[in-house]
């Protein structure tokens, strides 16, 4: 994986590591929301919600646009799919390792049976 890809993966997983940010992402993937409307659903300051939105935006998971005085946030489905692809890639690596371990155990069992 290239260095830029690793930096992007770090940003994506950092953004998704927080429960509030995952909830915000779910809400904006369902439809565009103003940051004010998003903030109304949490027991934290508007500024704190803005910071969570900023982290998601820097990671590329959401986009924002202005409509008058409102900031409207939308989820980026392609970015979410890229996270899924990264996890699938990691799953394939581990499945390959587990298969190799199974093969070694099976080969060891065969050797034990031949010796007895």
UniProtKB/TrEMBL annotation:
For this protein, the record's SMART domains field holds: HTH_ARSR
Classification via InterPro entries: ArsR-like_HTH, HTH_ArsR_DNA-bd_dom, WH-like_DNA-bd_sf, WH_DNA-bd_sf
SUPFAM superfamilies of this UniProt entry? Winged helix' DNA-binding domain
GO MF terms here are: DNA-binding transcription factor activity
Q: Which Pfam families match?
A: HTH_20 (PF12840)
List, alphabetically, the Gene3D superfamilies matched.
Answer: Winged helix-like DNA-binding domain superfamily/Winged helix DNA-binding domain (1.10.10.10)
Entry-linked PROSITE patterns: HTH_ARSR_2 (PS50987)
Identify the residues that the record assigns to the HTH arsR-type domain, covering every copy.
1-95
What PANTHER family does the record tag this protein with?
A: SLL0088 PROTEIN (PTHR38600:SF2), TRANSCRIPTIONAL REGULATORY PROTEIN (PTHR38600)
Q: What is this protein called?
A: Winged helix-turn-helix transcriptional regulator
Q: Which organism is it from?
A: Pseudonocardia petroleophila
